[in-house]
């Protein structure tokens, strides 16, 4: 173990972090929005719509993400109409291919998580909302989705960690994020253990941050489960 | 052929994972703080670090290690390691970390009273484990193990980076020589889809089999 080398590697790997964030943050954000839509469509009473969404989710959850990335990166370029459309200026770049495939992938996983959250909303909540004369959309926005998010949060936290780990696959389509740089350093000097320690530390730290962040949001979203703050002024006797 | 390679490597890795997972769960639940810490470190590292990085670690790391040992004996050439074994070890150790959590969860929901009852009628620890705990752990852990199996099946795709010819590598080779990447990656996707749906069926069947006589609640 050569601590100086580990530290140097660590600094070299840090330069891959901005790209890692540039891949994972847009994917998570857009994927989350799509996932809400998919979850709602999956729960729609229309059999055709819900089974179409089911097939989408099934496909993306049952095939390796690597296959999906390769299908987008190598596969889409095969079509002449894509190469001639305006999309080509994006899909040419491995970066946009990585973001696109990861967005579609996380949308499928997150849709299942949100669907679970929506199904866990007690029926009484719907009835109470309707009794107050809320429209379907208002009911969804004010009652169902907030409760569903609160329920889905722990599972969504693990999905975020999976996505952070999945950015490493972008290195297979030439993007030099943390794992890509690590691979390059390993092939340069074959000091595998040291590079692994440095890269592992970065990923573990990111996961730690995500876990803490999710706990924080969970805490903020569940004030009703906490004890009421103790007032320092004792109430006057009646 | 490539499909059999994928199945072979996933199966070996999954069983390696089951062994590591039982050991991991045992150490995480043990009374010794050192064993608990070791289990904690194991699951944290192998669940937190990307699979690809772990595969690189095993593939390049083991060749480096063997070359180092060979160097000590005066051999200085390059040593090629077996991609099957290193890939299996990498995926197996990752799936072991996930299995640890599954087994641990199953042990934690076992009713305490049953274990106390078994002790009260004089069963030795090993007998308690074999007659009371193990059958129930098997039943309770099955759904979780199903997920672990599916994810190790999908993880084997990453072993293609080491050049082992499984589904993914085979499709890359075919895509390269025919210039039809979409077709071959779609075939790969279809094969994985088939394997995954087939295994989900199997696990559902096993769950139904092991939970005969239990009320669904």
Order of helices and strands of chain A: HHHHHHHHHHH
- CATH top level of chain B is Mainly Alpha
Task: Please tell me the total number of domains of chain B.
Answer: 1
Query: Helical percent range of chain B?
Result: over 70%
What's the CATH topology name of the domain at 27-156 in chain A?
MetI-like fold
Estimate the strand proportion of chain A: under 5%
Number of helices of chain B: 8
Name the CATH superfamily classification of chain B: MetI-like
- Amino-to-carboxy terminus distance of chain A: 72 Å
Number of helices of chain A: 11
Name the overall outline of chain A.
flat
| CATH class category label of the domain at 27-156 in chain A | Mainly Alpha
Query: Could you name the ranges of chain A where pLDDT drops below 50 across 5 or more consecutive residues?
Result: none
Summarize the structure.
By secondary structure, chain A is mainly alpha-helical. Chain A has 11 helices and no strands. The longest helix of chain B has 31 residues.
């Amino acid at each position: 173990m050569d601590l100086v080398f580990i530290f140097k590697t660590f600094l070299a790997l840090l330069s891959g972090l901005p790209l890692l964030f540039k891949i994972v943050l847009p994917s998570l954000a857009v994927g989350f929005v799509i996932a809400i839509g998919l979850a709602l469509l999956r729960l729609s009473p229309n059999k055709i719509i819900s089974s179409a969404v089911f097939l989408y989710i099934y496909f993306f959850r049952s095939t390796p993400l690597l296959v999906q990335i390769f299908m987008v990166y190598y596969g889409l370029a095969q079509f002449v109409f894509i190469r001639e459309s305006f999309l080509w200026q994006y899909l040419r770049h491995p970066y946009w291919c990585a973001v696109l495939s990861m967005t579609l992938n996380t949308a499928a996983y997150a849709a299942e998580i949100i669907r679970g959250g929506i199904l866990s909303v007690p029926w009484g909540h719907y009835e109470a909302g309707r009794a107050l004369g809320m429209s379907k959309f208002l009911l969804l926005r004010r009652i169902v989705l907030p409760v569903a998010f609160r329920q889905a949060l722990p599972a969504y936290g693990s999905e975020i960690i999976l996505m952070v780990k999945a950015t490493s696959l972008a290195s297979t389509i030439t993007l030099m994020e943390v794992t890509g740089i690590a691979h390059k350093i390993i092939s340069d000097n074959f000091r595998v253990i040291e590079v692994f320690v440095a890269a592992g530390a970065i990923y573990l730290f990111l996961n730690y941050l995500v876990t803490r962040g999710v706990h924080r949001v969970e805490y903020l979203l569940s004030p009703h489960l906490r004890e009421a703050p103790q007032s320092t002024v004792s109430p006057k006797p009646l | 052929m490539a499909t059999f390679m994928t199945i072979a490597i996933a199966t070996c890795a999954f069983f390696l994972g089951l062994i590591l997972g039982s050991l991991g769960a045992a150490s995480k639940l043990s009374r010794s703080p050192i064993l608990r810490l070791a289990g904690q470190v194991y699951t944290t590292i192998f669940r937190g670090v990307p699979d690809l990085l772990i595969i690189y670690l095993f593939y390049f790391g083991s060749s480096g290690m063997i070359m180092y040992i060979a160097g000590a004996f005066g051999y200085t050439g390059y040593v090629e390691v077996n991609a099957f074994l290193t890939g299996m070890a990498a995926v197996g150790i990752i799936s072991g970390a996930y299995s640890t959590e599954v087994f641990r969860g199953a042990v934690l929901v076992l009713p305490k009273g049953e274990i106390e009852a078994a002790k009260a009628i004089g069963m030795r620890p090993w007998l308690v484990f074999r007659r009371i705990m193990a059958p129930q752990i098997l039943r309770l852990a099955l759904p979780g193990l199903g997920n672990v199996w599916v994810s190790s099946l999908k993880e084997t795709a990453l072993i293609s980076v080491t050049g082992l010819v499984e589904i993914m590598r085979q499709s890359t080779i075919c895509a390269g020589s025919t210039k039809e990447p979409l077709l071959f990656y779609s075939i790969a996707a279809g094969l994985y889809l088939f394997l995954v749906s087939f295994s989900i069926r199997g696990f559902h069947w096993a769950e139904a089999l092991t939970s005969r006589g239990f009320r669904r609640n």
